């Protein structure tokens, strides 16, 4: 099991830190926005209990080494700008999956790239990962542009991969592979 406890990851404008119970109202606001959740793997949340359960799970996953789920905080005012995660961590395979979202007011400012560069650096450096995957719906242009900018490559279409609110969705598998960048 990898030791996922970390000091905060700092970038020019952002602080990536462990989620804490007091984040629940802001996390709910983020995951309740239909625009943010348009291409997500589950429907928007509507209850504070959903945010609280996610934070509890993030804390358990941190202890078990299964996932590293971080708050993305704006350093300017300390507000929750988004969240990102390395989940399905398979240390023996040196592989994990990346997830991320930002609140709409933060879009288009290079902030996701800034946050994920730090997260990737941590995953590839401290955690010793060699392959980081991401699953993205084909219509999520912003997310695909972001991944391409970070050096991910689209590998293949996974048909009927997600079931979201009664609909079936195809998903594209993207991956950053260390071997391709050495
Ligand atoms: C995907 C998301 C995190 C991107 O965040 P962002 O902060 O706007 O992205 P950035 O500003 O860092 O942009 C990164 C790159 O993607 C490009 N990009 C961002 N949004 C874009 C859009 N709507 N259309 C085309 N390109 C876009 C940027 O131009 C930039 O490329 P560049 O550096 O070459 O200029 C954000 O749109 C979001 O939270 N969406 C909702 C949640 C979601 O779908 N998460 C991903 C699930 S797989």
TrEMBL record:
Domain N-acetyltransferase: 14-179
One Gene Ontology term of the molecular function aspect: acyltransferase activity, transferring groups other than amino-acyl groups
Pfam families (alphabetical): Acetyltransf_3
InterPro entries, sorted: Acyl_CoA_acyltransferase, GNAT_dom, N-acetyltransferase
Gene3D superfamilies: 3.40.630.30
Name by which UniProt lists this protein: N-acetyltransferase domain-containing protein
């Amino acid at each position: 099991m990898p030791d996922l406890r970390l000091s905060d990851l700092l970038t020019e404008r952002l602080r990536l830190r462990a989620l804490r119970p007091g984040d629940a109202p802001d996390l709910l606001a983020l995951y309740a926005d239909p625009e943010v959740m348009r291409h997500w793997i589950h429907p928007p949340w509507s209850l504070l209990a959903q945010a609280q359960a996610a934070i509890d799970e993030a804390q358990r996953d941190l202890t078990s080494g299964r996932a590293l789920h971080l708050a993305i905080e704006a350093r300017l005012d300390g507000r929750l700008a988004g969240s990102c995660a390395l989940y399905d961590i398979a240390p023996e395979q040196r592989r994990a999956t990346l997830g991320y979202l930002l609140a709409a007011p933060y879009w288009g400012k290079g902030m996701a790239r800034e946050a994920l560069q730090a997260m990737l650096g941590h995953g590839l450096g401290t955690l010793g990962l060699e392959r980081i995957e991401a699953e993205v719906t084909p219509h999520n242009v912003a997310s695909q542009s972001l991944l391409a900018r970070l050096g991910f490559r689209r590998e293949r279409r996974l048909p009927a991969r997600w079931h979201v609110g009664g609909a079936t969705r195809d998903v594209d598998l993207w991956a950053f592979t260390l071997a391709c960048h050495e």
